[in-house]
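User: ok so my PI wants both of these folded by tonight, can you help

Assistant: No problem, let's get them done. Here's the first:
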Amino acid sequence: MRQISMHSTLHSRSTSNVGRQEVLDASLRLQVVRARFCDDLLARRPCDAEVFVITDRFSLRDWLEGHCGRAEELTAVTWTRHQSVEAFAPSHRFNRDLVQAGVRMTSFFDISEGSPTITDFIVAADDMPYHISFGPIQLKLLDGERVIVEGPVLNDRRSLMMIHGAEAVNAAGQYLRAVRGGAVRAVELREHYPAGLTPRQHVIAALLGDGCTDEEIADRLTLSVRTVRYEVARLMETLEVKTRFAAGVRYAEADTLERHHIAGTCNLIDHCGGPPAR
């Protein structure tokens, strides 16, 4: 079973103060541009922006996938806070489809205050252009031409806006360069996991604890059912139990205190001394 020290390592040895300050400075410049577009939209002044009011997560997903699916290049900064595996899995499947379709994608995840299970999911994602970094603003840059960021609050609802123009694109580019400077490829964090369970097995164990079937786990993790069953067998052997139900229960019992401690105390990002993101 993982020890607290392992997951704390992914957070507490943070990006250098200089690198963090560069990200914060760049994010401030981006926020100034964003605020100007929000003011124009609220005042109904003409501006080169499209706003989407969020009514539910399904319409939000359709809107984002509609725009991202038409891009040839996509760079994103995403928070993992408040995300569950169930909520993250559809985005991961869509990302995999984009990569397989030839989209040049780079995803930076800020894992501070996020679920360790989501971090395990990201680290376990083979052949995906996933990175861990510090990113205070969520953003998508499409084809170096369009920027999607948080929009204004309209009728007590959150919104997203897609903005165009050199000013927005340049501000987004500066921010992304700063985020990239402190990033590490997610798969390179595997070496920080102690002997025992792999990142993928941590995710599978957590899903077993939630009562998921092998088929449901395979669907969420975009794995074959055969692979899931193989991993469950290895998991049961490592945890020294005879049933998949017992594996989920034992993992949940052993991991609950650790995960609650991590969620409450770890709020920094670590690049773990790895090479810069590629």
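One down. Here's the second:
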Amino acid sequence: MTDNAPVAPGTPVPYDAVVLAGGGARRLGGADKPGLRVGGRALIDRVLAACADAGTTVVVADRRPTARPVCWAREEPPGAGPVAALEAGLRLTTAEHTVVLSADLPFLQPATLQRLLSALGETGADGALLADADGRDQPLVAAYRTAALRRELAALAAGPDGLVGLPLRRLTGALRLTRVPDPLASFDCDTWEDLVNARARIREHGHVLDEWISAVKNELGIDLDVDTGALLDLARDAAHSVARPAAPLTTFLVGYAAAQGKGGPEAVAEAARKAAALALRWEEESNGGGKESSGGGNSGGPSAPDAG
């Protein structure tokens, strides 16, 4: 496939990812920003989850534990700035497209990256980047043509001062860019106030359940997407038709049964369907339905003694 070859709508675009995680976090007093937690997960792990589809993921920073395996790189000298860090990470990539991310994006999603990659293909630009709520460019939440990045990095490296200390605008200013507005996905945690706001936001009604399920799956090492609505319906039916404590126990047993079988989303759905049907049968019995005929028209109590 050539660099500008069209991709069928809905087809995921292959890419590599470079995550810059070695900054000094001066506005956070030098705290370990990638390791700060939002929703029980380190910021860097949230970013790595968003780019899990990357062919190669390179993190430019000192090595640290991460939720999934990555390649590691370091700019020379350490602390030489984002342009030098990007160049170091790019050495380990091979895909035609590279997603470049900072390590402090609590609300980044895989769909956001595909939107950027689609915009890149549709416009023919060198890069597609997010714009924040104020319309400002976010070059560290962006998808680029790898060849364009390498071309401009080589030109900058040939300058009298090389890449050390260069701001990103020196690189992006030479590229043809398109913008994708997304105030939420572009939100980053530069200050303690940003961190507090991010932690509050994921507890809002529209986000808290998805955030919790993602955190639990990450903690347990589970990579499984299931119909959470069906499981919630099952819990409701078990609580209503049997007893309130039946809800968590039933959903646990459904998961256990699915794990003993194929273990995929289909196995969970089938086990949930069977358990929900059972709960409805319990409800029918408790409401007096489903009585079996005893024959001879006797519908209740003990049968009459044999007259002999």
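The mean pLDDT is 84. Residues 265-286 form the longest helix (22 residues). Good luck tonight!
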